[in-house]
Amino acid sequence: MAGLAEVMKAVKTAVETFNTWLMGDMELVIDSIRDGTIKALVKQNCACSLDFSLKEEIENAFKEAGLEAEAEVLGWDVERSGYKVEIRLKNPG
């Protein structure tokens, strides 16, 4: 089991990985982390359409950072111009 500091570092790496992959078109912003569940927003910074699975891209970014996670896209947040997502870490440590 990983310690909290190691998990937080891996979450930061996952966010940076996701943001790099999307090259500024979208940005993963963490709102809260509690009991292995991350509430976040994927801000859309362009008028581009989604031609990929946002869920899979998030899960792959976390996997790349060494964390197993399950993501769920909860819907569009009109006020914040982004997709609300919930990411559940499996075995967070």
Approximately how much helix is present in the residues?
25-40%
**Uncertain spans, ≥5 residues at pLDDT below 50?**
none
**Span of the ends, CA to CA:** 5 Å
Name of the top-level CATH class: Alpha Beta
Per DSSP, the total helix count is 2
Short description:
The protein has about 90 residues and is α+β, with helices and mostly antiparallel strands. About 30% of the residues lie in helices and about 40% in strands.
Q: Can you walk me through this structure?
A:
With about 90 residues, the protein is α+β, with helices and mostly antiparallel strands. The chain has one domain: Threonyl-tRNA Synthetase, Chain A, domain 2. The chain has two helices and four strands. Strands 1-2-4-3 form a four-stranded antiparallel sheet. The mean pLDDT is about 90.
Notable traits:
Threonyl-tRNA Synthetase, Chain A, domain 2; 4-stranded antiparallel sheet; 31% helix; 93 residues; globular; 2 helices; alpha+beta
SSE layout and pairings?
Blueprint: H1 4-21, E1 26-34, E2 37-44, H2 54-64, E3 68-77, E4 82-90
Antiparallel strand pairs: 1-2, 2-4, 3-4
Helix pairs in contact: 1-2
